[in-house]
Amino acid sequence: MVSFGFSVPLTRWLPRAWSSYNISNTKNGYTRHNIGVNGTLLDDERLSYSLQQSHSNHDGEDTSSVYGTYRSQYANLNASYYASSGSAEQMNYGISGAIVAHPRGVTLAQPLGSQFAIVNANGASGVRFQNQQGIQTDWLGNAVIPSLTPYEENAIRIDTASLPENVESSDTSIRVIPSRNAAVESRFDAHVGYRMLIALTRPGNQRVPFGAIVTSANADLSGIMDDTSTVYLAGVGEPTQLTVKWGKAPDQQCVAHILQQAEGYTESPNGIRSTRALCQQETAYAH
User: Fold this and answer.
1) 66 pLDDT band (50/70/90 cuts)?
2) Pairing relation of β-strands 273-278 and 194-202?
3) Helix or strand or coil: residue 230?
4) Which residues form the PapC-like C-terminal domain (predicted)?
5) Residues 6 or more apart in contact with residue 94 via CB below 8 angstroms
6) What is the pLDDT of residue 287?
7) In angstroms, rounded to a whole number, what is the distance separating the alpha carbons of residues 231 and 199?
8) 98-192: CATH architecture
9) Contact criterion met (CB below 8 Å) for 212 and 226
């Protein structure tokens, strides 16, 4: 048999697609021509497809086939259709995936390899990962990276370009080294909330001193007041209580409550919200 083929990228008209042509000759003089288009779609290439058409001069048979695979966060879906001029027709479809039980719950996943990782984004949903088509954290903040290389350092990276606008993460890459046939757990220090510039004033329109330390009630957010009595925080939820300290005395600290009502802030084109809040001593809130 002698065969010849080539492929041509179609990216000028269709992103991440290419066409192919192949011709083969047998020693009996039969010739088969095959032409096809293959590619991937969607932002993380989780949908792949293939269209093929062939013709043989042996019996004049023409065949057509279409195949597609969609990789979702819960499973892989595939479907195919085949037809020939000889009246043969065939359609197939299927779903494949896994159910993983772990200390944080139960997570649906794509088909698993011998080694895999259970990842938690600290409760943040919709977090995607680089080079992992279709995989993102579920409503509990869990995801499964289905395949890892054993006894080697595997990097799991957040796709920061696709982070939901209300999610921030102080780390974007973690590394795991699984043994053979093992599942490993890892966690990103993500926060569900918004990036905010918060201008704080004390009673009497007094500024909060420069350098004051700002922390959230559960200590997962922290920042330092600038010379305009403003602090930048990432991952501010709703509502959030902030404690501000610039000394140890009771009159050298105050508490502010941040709400996310639309009328209470302005938002810049880059997604940073700006708001103002009153910072009072805790006894003032108690009354």
Assistant:
1) very high
2) parallel
3) strand
4) 197-258
5) 77, 78, 79
6) 47
7) 7
8) Sandwich (2.60)
9) no
